[in-house]
């Protein structure tokens, strides 16, 4: 049986965007089990009470119920270089099994991370969504492998907009930013477009 994960930022005792994460868990179970399941946020909040200072990754493993909740101190991993890799991966649900993503990550060679290309279009990093700066606006691929919570929030706030981004359009941008629920927009790695190797 497949298990799923949800990663939530716990910062100084506050679970960031908890309601949105719970909604995604509900959408996942509805899609996979064809059953609408409501998860009790109090279970997660109770588990988080022992972590009142600092930034932690709250990792929830679940099926039709919460199987486990763990917490780990979190620091943004340095990323300075990126390698394009091709894949037909389907990761619309956030599965616990990351075998294919890990395989793609290993194809990075001497680079720090990968950008996954599907059918000639930019999707995501190995564990992040992406945004590209054209000198005026930030654009996120309209074809992500996974629609992250931070991505959803940034679109709602108007900080990023969706756009189909073929590999051939990368030269039209100046910067790339890698972000996820654990990396706030302000601290997410931002790199010149030239660090992407095709």
What does this entry look like structurally?
With 198 residues, this protein is α+β, with helices and mostly antiparallel strands. It folds into 2 domains: 4-73, D-amino Acid Aminotransferase, Chain A, domain 1, CATH 3.30.470; 82-197, D-amino Acid Aminotransferase, subunit A, domain 2 (D-amino Acid Aminotransferase, Chain A, domain 2, Alpha-Beta Barrel), CATH 3.20.10. 20% of the residues lie in helices and 32% in strands. The strands form 3 sheets. The chain has a 5-stranded mixed β-sheet with strand order 10-9-8-11-12, with helices on one face. A 4-stranded antiparallel β-sheet has the order 2-1-3-4. Strands 7-6-5-13 form a 4-stranded mixed β-sheet, with no helix packed on it. A hairpin with a 3-residue loop joins strand 3 (55-62) and strand 4.
Give the helices and strands, then pairings.
Layout: E1 4-11, E2 14-15, H1 18-33, H2 41-48, E3 55-62, E4 66-73, E5 82-86, H3 99-105, E6 113-118, E7 121-125, E8 129-133, E9 138-141, H4 149-157, E10 161-163, E11 175-179, E12 190-192, E13 196-197
Parallel strand pairs: 5-6, 5-13, 9-10
Antiparallel strand pairs: 1-2, 1-3, 3-4, 6-7, 8-9, 8-11, 11-12
Can you give keywords for this protein?
198 residues; D-amino Acid Aminotransferase, Chain A, domain 1; 13 strands; alpha+beta; five-stranded mixed beta sheet; D-amino Acid Aminotransferase, Chain A, domain 2; 4 helices; 32% strand
Measured distance between first and last alpha carbons? 37 Å
CATH architecture of the largest domain: Alpha-Beta Barrel
| Helix and strand sequence | EEHHEEEHEEEEHEEEE
How are the strands of the largest sheet arranged? 10-9-8-11-12
CATH topology of the largest domain: D-amino Acid Aminotransferase, Chain A, domain 2
> What percent strand?
25-35%
Q: What is the count of structural domains?
A: 2
- Low-pLDDT regions: none
Structural class: alpha+beta
The CATH superfamily of the largest domain is D-amino Acid Aminotransferase, subunit A, domain 2
Helicity range: 10-25%
**DSSP helix count?**
4
- CATH class placement of the largest domain: Alpha Beta
The total of beta strands comes to 13
Radius of gyration, Cα only, in angstroms?
17 Å
């Amino acid at each position: 049986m497949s298990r799923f994960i949800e990663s939530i930022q716990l910062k100084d005792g506050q679970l960031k965007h908890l309601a949105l994460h719970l909604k995604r868990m509900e959408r996942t179970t509805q899609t996979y089990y064809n059953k609408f399941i409501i998860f009790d946020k109090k279970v997660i909040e109770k588990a988080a009470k022992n972590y009142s200072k600092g930034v932690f990754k709250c990792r929830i493993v679940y099926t039709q119920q919460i199987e486990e909740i763990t917490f780990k101190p979190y620091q943004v991993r340095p990323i300075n270089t990126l390698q394009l890799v091709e894949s037909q991966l389907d990761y619309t649900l956030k599965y616990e099994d990351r075998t294919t993503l890990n395989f793609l990550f290993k194809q990075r060679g001497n680079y720090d991370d990968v950008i996954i290309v599907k059918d000639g279009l930019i999707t995501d990093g190995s564990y992040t969504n992406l945004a590209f700066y054209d000198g005026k606006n930030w654009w996120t691929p309209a074809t992500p492998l996974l629609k992250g919570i931070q991505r959803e929030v940034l679109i709602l706030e108007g900080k990023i907009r969706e756009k189909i981004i073929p590999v051939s359009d990368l030269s039209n941008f100046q910067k790339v930013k890698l972000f996820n629920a654990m990396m706030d927009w302000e601290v997410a790695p931002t790199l010149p477009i030239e660090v992407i190797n095709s």
